[in-house]
Design goal:
The protein contains two helices and 24 strands. It is mainly beta and 338 residues long. It has two domains: 152 residues, no CATH class; 167 residues, Sandwich (Jelly Rolls). Strands 8, 10, 11, 13, 18, 19, 20 and 22 form an eight-stranded antiparallel beta sheet that branches. Strands 9-12-21-14-15-16-17 form a seven-stranded antiparallel beta sheet, with no helix packed on it. The protein is globular.
Length: 338
């Protein structure tokens, strides 16, 4: 399986924010002037149903064999490009690309309220230049301190390039591509050391528990963590009872702002808020359980898309993140340019 981490910068597959030729701008009807050198393109309509304007929002683009002939896309994806309605290249990161499908994260510079965003995807160009690997990190420039996709061998995708470590875990099918599976009674663990996160901060991830018995650390650090207490959630003094169900995915966040913690489940503020210090003594996050605990007391289940931010995520942002799990991207017909 190909992942973006498998290439060096010299063979990076991640998109840039460089102007495309004006002739590549998609119009309302058939595209009059193809982008030179590319053999195919397809129009995308993205509707995240934003409730307020959102800047630099990363949206998941899923490619499947029923829509695309993957033989027309380079095995490492270096010929993929995206442009906005004005013909400007958009930054993207390929999380996974196999003959069975792909997950690509595309940064949308601005989402308008209740508006559809028009994008064009180009592919099929064996001579397409490779783009610098560092530019793909700019997909996650909107206040992210760390972004962990859950794919084997990958690290932090954010511009901060946080130090990560993985012990054990097994690959699993997540909400977006691969996820980490934390086995029962095994010492499976993921660690992420970020920059200092004093002040506003957020911790979010998709979780799918195998059990709602007892207590377990899901992810976090000293003074800022999300714990499972039976089917409920806890972040410091903030609590959200009856928020989880066995074998069901939930998007779970703890948002800290001005000494106050709020738990969000599937984009909605849930339960009772709590208070905690703005200071955070240790920016090392443990995912899958408190590492000092015995394996039997650790989290069992799947975790996908671990996102740590050095700001308090807006509820409208969280709602949009949940929405993109659904069918928010409509694909037009593939247009041959040769």
């Amino acid at each position: 399986m190909f992942t973006w981490r498998s290439l060096l910068c010299a063979s990076a597959l991640i998109g840039a924010c460089k102007p495309a030729p004006p002739s590549s701008a998609p119009g309302a009807g058939p595209h009059a002037s193809p982008r030179p050198g590319w053999g195919a393109r397809v129009a995308l309509s993205i509707d995240l149903r934003a409730t307020k304007p959102l800047l630099d929002f990363p949206v998941a683009i899923r490619l499947t064999p029923d829509r695309f002939d993957f033989k027309r896309i380079a095995a490492d994806g270096h010929d993929v490009r995206f442009t906005d309605a004005a013909g400007v290249d958009l930054t993207y990161e390929i999380e996974t690309l196999t003959p069975r499908g792909a997950v690509i994260w595309l940064r949308l510079p601005r989402l308008e309220v209740a508006a559809v965003t028009k994008v064009t995807m180009y592919f099929d160009n064996s001579k397409a230049p490779y783009l610098d690997a560092s530019e793909g990190r700019e997909v996650w420039r909107a206040g992210f301190a760390a972004v962990i996709h859950g794919i084997e061998g990958a690290g932090d995708s954010s511009p901060r390039d946080a130090t990560t470590g993985v012990v054990g875990t097994n690959p699993a099918e997540g909400v977006f591509g691969a996820a980490y599976y934390f086995a029962t009674k095994q010492l499976d663990a993921v660690s992420v050391k970020t920059e200092p996160l004093d002040g506003d901060r957020s911790l979010c991830m998709w979780i799918r528990p195998d059990s709602v018995e007892g207590k377990a650390r899901i992810a976090g650090s000293t003074g800022f963590a999300i714990d499972r207490e039976q089917a409920g959630l806890k972040c410091g003094e903030a609590i959200a009872p009856s928020s989880l169900a066995i074998y069901s995915w939930r998007y779970t966040c703890c948002v800290h702002h001005a000494g106050r913690d709020v738990l969000f489940v599937d984009g909605l503020a849930t339960g009772k808020p709590g208070t905690s210090k703005d200071t955070m003594p240790d920016p090392t996050f443990e995912v899958g359980g408190a590492h000092g605990e015995k394996p039997a007391k650790r989290f069992a289940g799947m975790i996908d898309e671990i996102r740590i931010s050095h700001l308090a995520r807006d509820p409208a942002w969280l709602v949009a993140e949940v929405a993109e799990r659904g069918n928010v991207v409509a694909f037009g017909a593939v247009e041959d340019l040769n």
